[in-house]
Structures are given as C-alpha cells and as structure tokens.
Write a structure and sequence with these properties.
alpha/beta; Rossmann fold; five-stranded parallel β-sheet; 45% helix; 10% strand; globular; binds thiamine diphosphate; binds magnesium ion
C-alpha cells in the first residue's frame, strides 16, 4: 500500500512539473494525470515488470515508475520535444505515448498473441480512454483478443470526458465493461478512484491471462480532475458542481484516508516522499535539457532497420 501511494503522489507531482514546463515554454503540449493515479499505479503494481508489458495512451507514463526509471526519463525527454523521447529502451517494458487514439490496442493484442505463440511468460496491459472506445481499432483488437485467447488486459480509463465530450454522449451502452459481451470475454467494472480495487481487478485478470484463460476488459471509472491537456480550458464545459463532487473522491485523498485508517500514514512521511519525487524529477529535467540533440535524430526509432530511402534522406539532411 505504501509503495502504491508513493507512486501515486509521485505521478501527480511529475505530471504537474511537466505541465509547468509547458507554461514556461520548456515543454510541448502534455496531458495531466490528475484523477487517473489510482488506475495507472494500481494496475502497474499488479503486474510483473520483468515479464509484462504496458502500452499507454498519453496520460499514464508518469505513473509507471515501477517499470523502471527509463519510463519517466524518456517521458520528460519526449515532452521537451527530443526525438529520443519517443523510444523507451530495455529493460523497461513500456511503449511510448500514443496520440492516435486506440491504435495501441491492436499493437497490444498482437504483442500478447506473439508472446503466447512464443510460449513467453507474462501478459500485456493496454490503457485507453472512454473516448477511444469509439474507434474501430478498439473493437477489432478486442475481437481478435477473444478469438485468439491473447494474454492481454484492456483497461478503459473512463474519466468522464473525451476532451469536451462527456461520457453520456460517447455511447448508448450502459457502461464500457459490458462491451466485453460482444467479444465473448470477461468484463469488469471497477472503482477507478480506489487503487486497491484496481490492483485486485488487474491481479485477477493477470492470473487468468498467464494461466492461458485469455483477455479481460476492465473499465475503471474515475473523473478527470484537470484539463484535457495544456491546450484546454475545461472551465468552459466542465460543470463546477460535478468537478467539486469528483474532488471528494480524489484518488490520492481516498488512498491517504485508507492508509490513515490503517495507521500507515503521517504528514511527515508523505512530505519526505514528495521531496524525493521532486528531487527525482529535477534530475530527469536537468538530464533531458542537457541531452545533446542533432537534427538527424528525427530519423531514428521509426524502423528497427532504417529503409534505404530514410538512410539517404538522413545523409542529405545532415549534409
Ligand atoms: C484517431 C484520433 N482521433 C482524434 C484525436 C483527437 N483527440 C485527442 S485526445 C481526444 C479525446 C480522447 O479521450 P479519451 O479516450 O477519453 O482519453 P482521455 O483524454 O480522457 O484520457 C481526441 C478526440 C486523436 N488524437 N486521434
Ligand atoms: Mg476520457
């Protein structure tokens, strides 16, 4: 519990620091995690970083510290616009942020199916938003996952909004978990403000996946507590009363209350953890801003082996 809480408060701090870098003109557009900490960190802690893979959307990378320091370091690099930021090196089993909605879901299912065929240990977890479930890729990939018994956990982060589109106009379905019926796979609805509940749902799904019982669709219900991105003004469309009610279920406050109840929390302990997260983030920012940049690096990381045309283009560009 303490390590989940530590990563949750760290993720919010990292996210706020990247947001501030954008305001200072030192980083590009980014999407804050506020409200999704319990989903991301709870899920990450139910996985095995030595064998499992995570495919994020674009909001989750600050919460995946458990998968290795490369994840945050590369996310900061990505946020400041360095081409190497789009590549997370081993051993971290995390894919880079994905802006093109739901395209990470077929990637996740393909990876999981490949792992199954190769007899590899572990599973794949993919995050997508409520809005992203309206993409064809989501349906195609979940259908394949069911047919192929792929060891994949599909986590729909229902934060109430897809930019300014509220969930109630996103679908006529009662909820997103029930879409699992169409794929013939288990669907689970979990309170996404409760990190322990998310942890348990993902741990169950993982047990099934690694036992060969196939995929699970998990809907984690939470509320977006910040703007969609640095480019958004939610005061123009988020009802104030709805937001205020959601703040009562701020996942960090929920977890803090539970830890207090169990005698696991003091103010001093939390302040110490925050100071460590702050220092850790400072190191990531200093390293990212000092990372040498040659324009030719724009051509890296597109293909494992660059095509002859890319090689020619890079040479011409560098000349
Ligand atoms: C294929 C595609 N269509 C549209 C967009 C523009 N767009 C970016 S974020 C977003 C909303 C996504 O909402 P959701 O999936 O709920 O994720 P959230 O931002 O709430 O985490 C949209 C429509 C995009 N990035 N990609
Ligand atoms: Mg959303």
């Amino acid at each position: 519990m303490t390590s989940i809480f530590t990563d949750m408060i760290g993720s919010r701090l990292f996210s706020q620091r990247v947001f501030n870098l954008q305001r200072q003109g030192r980083a590009g557009t980014n999407a804050p995690i506020d409200g999704s900490e319990a989903v991301v960190v709870g899920a990450a802690h139910a996985l095995d970083p030595a064998h499992d893979w995570v495919l994020p959307q674009y909001r989750e990378l600050v919460g995946l510290e458990r998968f290795g320091p490369e994840v945050l370091d590369r996310y900061v690099l990505y946020s400041i616009g360095h081409p190497d930021g789009g590549h997370i090196p081993p051993p971290a089993r995390v894919w880079p942020p994905q802006i093109s909605l739901a395209t990470q879901v077929p990637h996740a299912v393909g990876l999981a199916w490949g792992m199954k065929r190769a007899g590899a240990t572990g599973c794949v977890l993919v995050f997508l938003g409520d809005g992203s479930t309206s993409e064809g890729d989501f349906y195609e990939a979940c259908n394949f996952a069911g047919v192929l018994d792929a060891p994949v956990i599909v986590v729909v982060v229902n934060n109430g909004w897809a930019i300014s589109t509220p969930t109630r106009t996103q679908t006529r379905a009662k909820n997103f978990a029930e879409k699992s019926h169409a794929f013939g796979i288990p669907g689970v609805n979990v309170d996404g403000t409760d990190a322990v509940a998310v942890y348990e749902a993902v741990a169950d799904a993982r047990s099934r996946a690694v036992a060969g019982a196939g995929p699970t669709l998990i809907e984690a219900v939470t509320y977006r507590l910040g703007p969609h991105t640095t480019a958004d003004d939610p005061t123009r469309y988020v009802p104030t009363d709805e937001l205020e009610a959601a703040k009562e279920r701020d996942p960090i406050a929920v977890m803090r209350t539970e830890m207090q109840r169990r005698g696991l929390w003091t103010q001093e302990w939390e302040e110490q953890r925050l100071a460590e997260a702050d220092a850790r983030m400072e190191r990531a920012v200093v390293a990212a801003e000092a990372a040498p940049l040659s324009p030719g690096e724009l051509f890296n990381h597109v293909y494992d082996e660059p095509t002859p045309r890319l090689v020619r283009q890079r040479e011409a560009f560098e000349r």
